[in-house]
TrEMBL record:
Spans traversing the lipid bilayer: none
Stored PROSITE patterns: GLNA_ATP (PS00181), GS_BETA_GRASP (PS51986), GS_CATALYTIC (PS51987)
Protein name per UniProt: Glutamine synthetase III
Domain GS catalytic: 186-620
Length: 725
């Protein structure tokens, strides 16, 4: 291969790559390592005095306030366990509004005055920390001169030991709040919203005769899609390194049109990476279950099993960190961006949501008798009402500059929020709208119970990939969240809007029962009312069809296309009131989230714009000019030799070069524009001036990629990044 571009060197390095040695230990039984590094219930039961264990468990299972006296005993047992596992430090781990994980490590060891040191870990150190951490986005909730921010132990999410070849660290999942107790993180509202939702779900369960059941929590099963790219290519792409997506790159001759990668044989190198990663996840008690190739070349998915919402959120963050680290070890970069490559499938993080507890399981499972089904339909109706009433908030919960590139194409749902129920369930709700359900579509006839509600078929019906919120048999799958996002944002919203619906339903049914109305009848009337009022959100058709936005508009469903259309939903009077009522966010906290949303949007696009300018001017343009010179030299030589020359080849390269120069000038001007310091104005500028200016630069550069001589082209191409692993 001739030429000496960074790209060509990367190709040579990829060819010379030698994979790392296998990690599996011969003597290890499969699955044996599961939970090995987790301070879980089994460990606690073994190591804690009985009364302490009972007290911790009642906090976890029934939401009882943690007895402070218990903390010392737990801390001491946790420290001994962690030291035995080789930990030298402990860290309160928290989830600031950057969307990433944050941690501050402290040594267990403190000098005791005689020149030696002893391991110390008191209850108060376990329960509270003061990391300062004043530089995180806070949307005006803290001034840096009031630098106090506190972390507080989340008892319900187990502590774990994180390994490093040079020593281990005890990690304690925590909330992160300001001095005034306002949320500065993603976990605090998640716990608050879970509590609100659980409380009202329990009221409904009581009406159905479950008078003494465990605390109801939300469950979350996040499906994580991601891309893997050889690190040599990754490092030769400053756009990938700095923004997580390719800002340049012409469409390769072959994309995903053959669907030959989807669920195909997993490449050996990738499978090696997956196995290595899953072993690490297993040690941390993360229930990694499913792995497969995704739709786009170079794209894959991992789906862990359901867990309690807050634990799933913690695990999901840990999963992303683990993936990043282990991918490097295998010579690859793991990309979590929602759209790293234009024109092929993007990456989502579908949030599978349900609610329930260990006694009753998921409350979104159709039962096998009419009574259970009435309960199931009530919870389903709560979802339908919540999604219809607060569609804007759901849309806002997945709004980001990066996810904007993904929504509405390649099997990612459109920005219009609707619900897919599947034919059978939709049919039942249609019948309910007209009066009591009497028959079932498809799977034979439906058994009609004494209380007029049917036995439901357990088969959920079809799947619909274009629906943002799809019923899949025992849960709802919120498909709009992006691969880079924490699941906490969507979960907070779902929990809170569900709290509102469940509260509404419980209040109605309680009043009816108190007034002496027959319970079955009260349920029937309520279901009819809800589906009549909120049925417009149910859509089983093709979310990509041109007719859908028109139909959606007729139904009064919003189409909030970009982040800037969606974010204002956070601060409508109705939203402020909702989150305040269920004690999830006060008004200040909501405003801070809105501000941070805008700020992150602007920052993301500003970085991309600067990168586009830099790469366009210093990498792409010089390569194109070199090629132009070669063509011009060739023409001059031909002319000198007396050959009749055609200037078209020179024009062919000169035209896009001129276009690139002018687009770069336009982008430079857009970047230099003074739009003041108001968050909304800056974000508007990013959307309306920077994004189009970047698109112009890209169009010219991509046109050049198709013309410039291969041995001069400096950036690894789509073909190389997507197909070489
Ligand atoms: N087949 C699939 O589930 C693809 C989903 C798609 N990658 C998304 O962005 O959501």
């Amino acid at each position: 291969m001739s030429g000496n571009t960074v790209r060509l060197q990367a190709i040579r390095d990829v060819e010379a790559y030698v994979p790392p040695a296998a990690v599996f230990i011969d003597t290890e039984a499969p699955g044996e390592v599961f939970g090995e590094n987790v301070f879980n219930q089994v460990v606690m039961q073994k190591r804690l005095p009985k009364s302490v264990y009972k007290s911790v468990m009642s906090t976890i299972e029934h939401g009882a306030t943690l007895d402070p006296l218990v903390a010392d005993a737990v801390a001491s047992a946790m420290k001994d366990w962690a030291l035995e596992k080789g930990a030298t430090h402990y860290a309160h781990v928290f989830y600031p509004l950057t969307g990433f994980t944050a941690e501050k490590h402290d040594s267990f060891f403190e000098p005791v005055g005689d020149g030696t040191a002893l391991a110390e870990f008191a209850g108060k150190t376990l329960t509270q920390g003061e990391p300062d951490a004043s530089s995180f986005p806070n949307g005006g909730l803290r001034n840096t001169f009031e630098a106090r921010g506190y972390t507080g132990w989340d008892v319900t999410s187990p502590a774990y030991v994180l390994e490093n070849p040079n020593g281990n660290t005890l990690c304690i999942p925590t909330v992160f709040v300001s001095m005034t107790g306002e949320a500065l993180d993603h976990k605090t509202p998640l716990l608050r919203s879970q509590q609100a939702m659980g409380e009202h779900a329990e009221r409904i369960l009581r009406l159905f005769g479950h008078t003494d059941t465990k605390k109801v929590v939300s469950f979350c099963g996040p499906e994580q899609e991601y891309f893997l790219v050889d690190r040599h290519f990754f490092l030769a792409r400053p756009d990938l390194v700095n923004s997580g997506r390719t800002l340049f790159g012409s469409k390769p001759p072959k994309g995903q049109e053959f669907d030959d990668h989807y669920f195909g044989a997993i490449p050996e190198r990738v499978l090696g990476f997956m196995m290595d990663t899953e072993r690490e996840l297993f040690k941390l008690g993360i229930p990694a279950k499913t792995r497969h190739n995704e739709v786009a070349p170079g794209q894959f998915e991992i789906a862990p099993m359901f867990e309690r919402g807050n634990i799933a959120a913690d695990h999901q963050q840990l999963l992303m960190t683990t993936f990043k680290t282990i991918a490097k070890k295998h010579g690859m970069e793991c990309l979590f961006h929602e759209k790293p490559f234009q024109g092929v499938n993007g990456s989502g993080k579908h949030v599978n949501f349900s609610l329930g507890n260990s006694e009753l399981g998921s409350l979104l499972v159709p039962g096998d008798n009419p009574h259970d089904n009435a309960q199931f339909l009530v919870f389903c109706a709560a979802v339908i009402r919540a999604v219809h009433k607060y569609a804007g908030l759901l849309r806002a919960s997945v709004a980001s500059a990066t996810n904007d590139h993904r929504l509405g194409a390649n099997e990612a749902p459109p920005a219009i929020i609707s619900i897919f129920l599947g034919d059978q369930l939709a049919d039942i709700f249609e019948q309910i709208a007209k009066g009591p359900a009497t028959s079932s579509k498809g799977k034979g006839s439906m058994t009609i119970g004494v209380d007029t509600l049917p036995v439901l078929p357990t088969d959920p019906g079809d799947r619909n990939r274009t629906s943002p919120f799809a019923f899949t048999g025992n849960r709802f799958e919120f498909r709009a969240p992006g691969s880079m996002q924490t699941v906490s944002g969507p979960m907070v919203t779902i929990n809170t809007i569900m709290a509102d619906s469940l509260d509404y339903i419980a209040t109605k049914l309680e009043a009816d029962v108190a007034a002496g109305t027959d319970f079955d009848e009260a349920v029937q009337t309520l279901l009819t009312e809800i589906i009549t009022e909120h049925g417009a959100v149910v859509f089983n058709g093709d979310g990509y069809a041109d007719a859908w936005p028109i139909e959606a508009e007729k139904r009064g469903l919003a189409n909030l296309k970009t982040t800037l259309d969606a974010l204002p939903e956070l601060i409508t009077p109705a939203a402020l009131e909702l989150f305040e009522k269920y004690k999830v966010f006060n008004h200040r906290e909501m405003h801070s989230r809105y501000e941070i949303g805008l700020e992150q949007y602007t920052l993301t696009i500003a970085v991309e714009a600067k990168l586009t300018l830099e790469i366009g001017a210093t990498v792409v343009l010089p390569a194109a000019v070199r090629h132009q010179t070669e063509v011009a030299t060739n023409i001059a030589a031909l002319k000198a030799a007396g050959v009749e020359v055609d200037l078209a080849p020179l024009e062919e390269v000169s035209t896009p070069i001129a276009a690139l120069r002018s687009a770069l000038a336009g982008l430079r001007t857009a970047l230099a524009a003074d739009v003041g310091h108001e968050a909304l104005a800056e974000a508007e500028h990013a959307r309306s001036a920077l994004l189009p200016a970047m698109a112009e630069v890209r169009a010219a550069a991509d046109a050049l990629e198709e013309i410039v001589s291969d041995d001069l082209w400096p950036l690894p191409t789509y073909q190389e990044m997507l197909f070489v692993l």
